[in-house]
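Hi U.,

Before I forget, here's the chain from the pilot set. I'm dumping it here mostly so it's searchable later in email.
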Amino acid sequence: MKSILASNAKDRLFAVYPEETLAQLEEHAGLDRSAVLTNQNLEELRPMLADVEVIFSTWGMPVLTEEQIADYLPRLKEVYYSAGSVQAFARPFLARGIRVYSAWAANGVPVAEYAVSQILLANVGFYQAMRYQSAGRIEKARAYSRLFPGNYDVKIGILGAGMIGTMVIERLKKDYHVDVMVFDPFLPEEKAAALGVRKASLAEVFSECQTISNHIANNEQTVGMLNYESCFKYMKDNAAFINTGRGAQVVETDLVRVLREKPDVTAVLDVTWPEPPEPGHPFYDLPNVFLTPHIAGSTGNEVHRMSLYMLEEFRRIHSGQAPLYEVSADMLARMA
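Structure:
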């Protein structure tokens, strides 16, 4: 068996695949480190690619057509993607019967950790209290923070109970005495019961919950689904909306509207659309908006976890075990 690395962003590739993982891939997957496949060197690598059966990649995965795959990679069987979403490249590979695996679970861990931490801070009024305190408005900061319920017997709303949403729910239910409401039309009643959550409509979640965290899958059907009429107008006093999902799911003019109407409401946005917001966007000036630069995801040493997941997936499959992280064409319709 022969395998190759593939990415148009070599610096990110070698950040994700540390030396110890590369050595393991050489030993167990026949990794050839003499070249990295990109969109620009297909012809140059043609002789080498003719024998490649496995690709290991990450962010910057080359986007190839079915015809290019057939022409340059005739023996390719498997793609292991050490990152999250495969939406940009997977379909032509799947159409040719090539199996695709993704480290979405590994990349989901830091997203869930980020979301849980922001939920906990929001429930004590951290964001605006910090802003008041930092401006020297000490009494205002104290009075504002006293309006919040803390993290006991509080209602938390989770939008989307896919893998990341489920990770968030499991962490909250394990460590905190909280009531979790979930909006997810695809969540089976049995899973809701197992997670200990209550299914609800968007309006119910936004009208009852202190803090709402978005983890809805990103696809054409979810663009703009979070708007004033569907949910934002129902937000409670002092409520918070946290978005680590996708910015395009939010009608941002509607979010701005409620933030102006209810200045005690807070938005914590790790994603926007476009990203970052364009110069002059109200998000930069509203005192109840807190922006972070898409840091809810693998960063620093955390990226090593993704390549380790794919190394373990390769070993699992080639020892005759069932895969854990295979992506199918049907899954793409509901995955981020």
